[in-house]
Design goal:
about 220 residues, binds zinc ion, two-stranded antiparallel sheet, alpha/beta, six-stranded mixed beta sheet, 2 domains, Aminopeptidase
């Protein structure tokens, strides 16, 4: 069974980057939780360093990751530079890149570029969580929080972004992506203990020009 650790950057007293009242910690958590759900739907065991707005040190995160014996560690962040000056996504691997980290990072970059973000490429950095995590690790900067266009993309296509990142992770794990079943919204116009009364209701609806059927449920 594949095991993945998702790390939602910042949290609690650490807001991460802030732009016009918008906090990076919230974006990281919201997007990450959606990805966790997608992965679990495919049978992946998902560990999360946090699932709410709590404060965690970088050491807490890597200790959690290293205890769990995960196949991959994926950290979610949003970038910031000079307001409205830069945009796009970049995915980081450790300076001495493990093959699997680079493979995953390339897949994620490709996926996010397809959603519409500018591709800033896969980069190497000596980040704490990348260095101290035993499993192959990547850190994604999902667009710039101080760029209105990136935020527009992030907000309007959040489900798609989550789906594409999940797909990239699943592809790396050799798991085939399966579309989520569509939700159907059924209209109920009454529940009856006597079939006769149900038939009367169907007759009434048909007289009103509304097609209706009886469905038995125990
Ligand atoms: Zn961050």
């Amino acid at each position: 069974m594949a095991k993945v650790c998702l790390d939602y950057g910042h949290g609690g007293v650490d807001s991460g980057a802030v732009y016009k009242g918008r906090c990076e910690k919230d974006d990281n958590l919201e997007l990450g939780l959606k990805i966790a759900e997608e992965l679990r739907r495919h049978g992946v065991i998902v560990g999360e360093t946090r699932t709410s707005d709590t404060t965690l040190s970088l050491k807490d995160r890597t200790l959690f990751a290293n205890k769990g014996n995960f196949d991959y560690f994926i950290s979610f962040h949003r970038n910031a530079y000079i307001p409205e000056k830069t945009n796009g996504v970049e995915t980081y691997v450790y300076i001495i890149g493990r093959e699997k980290s680079i493979e995953l990072a390339n897949k994620i970059q490709k996926a996010l570029t397809q959603v519409g973000f500018t591709n800033r490429g896969v980069k190497k950095a000596n980040f704490y969580v990348l260095r101290e995590t035993k499993s192959p690790a990547v850190l994604i900067e999902v667009g710039f929080i101080d760029n209105s266009e990136d935020n527009k993309l992030f907000d309007s296509r959040k489900d798609e972004i989550a789906k594409e990142i999940a797909k990239a992770i699943l592809e790396q794990l050799n798991i085939k992506y399966v579309e989520a079943p569509k939700t159907l919204y059924r209209v109920v116009a009454g529940s009856f203990l006597q079939r006769e009364n149900a038939e009367k209701q169907v007759k009434r609806l048909k007289e009103l020009g509304i097609d209706a059927v009886i469905v038995e449920s125990k």
